[in-house]
Amino acid sequence: MTARFHDHGEILGLPGKLRRPLRRRLEVVNAIQDEIHATYGGVCVDLASRPEIHQRAFWSVDRLHPSELGHRALARAFGAELLARGFTFDLPAPESDGHFSPNWRTDLVWMVTEGAPWVGRRARDLGPWAIRVALTETRAVRAPRSAATGERGRAVVSAS
Fold first, then answer.
1. Beta strands in the chain (DSSP E)
2. Which of 49, 62, 51 is nearest to 107 (CA)?
3. Which of 93, 138, 153, 158 has the fewest Cβ atoms within 10 Å of its own Cβ atom?
């Protein structure tokens, strides 16, 4: 049982220059996963097709991991796939069990103690990559089109 990824950059609210490279990487991962499922089968839920991923309540404070309600939605989506394949069981309830109620205080504590240090670590290893990809993409967009070929940044030399 696996899940195809959605556009994380959209959920995180990243600007287009950072979002596009991330989306391309996720497309590669999803294509590989599709190939594996085509070869071996399995149960797969496509997160991009799930409307609830756009709801704030679906995500924990880091916007990368599902909240309790997000986990319940995922469990129900996988459960529906298994029910369609002939398994028999009760789906989990879609609503919270009330054991944890996130609020701005718990979110702030998490952001200070866990989130900010994580971002700092990722800025050192992923930051240079993201900046390099964004700059490369910007240069490619700004490259002039050749009148002879219509291609960016290439000139055609005639052999005559």
1. 2-4, 44-46
2. 62
3. 158
Tokens of 7: 């556009």
Residues 99, 104, 108: CA angle, nearest 5 degrees: 105
Q: How far apart are CA 33 and CA 104, in angstroms?
A: 36
Cβ within 8 Å of residue 14, ≥6 positions away: 22
Q: Which residue has the higher pLDDT, 26 or 149?
A: 26
48-100 pLDDT tens trace? 999 998 888 888 887 778 888 999 999 999 999 999 999 999 999 998 877 76
Report yes or no on 155 lying in a domain. Answer: no
Q: What is the rounded CA–CA span in Å between residue 118 and residue 108? A: 14
Pairing of strands 2-4, 44-46: parallel
* Largest CA-CA distance found in the chain, in angstroms, rounded: 79
147 within some domain = no
Indicate the pLDDT class of residue 148, thresholds 50, 70 and 90: low
Taking the C-alpha atoms of residue 86 and residue 43, their distance in angstroms, rounded to an integer, is 13
Domain membership of residue 83 (yes or no) is yes
- Domain containing 104 equals 2-142
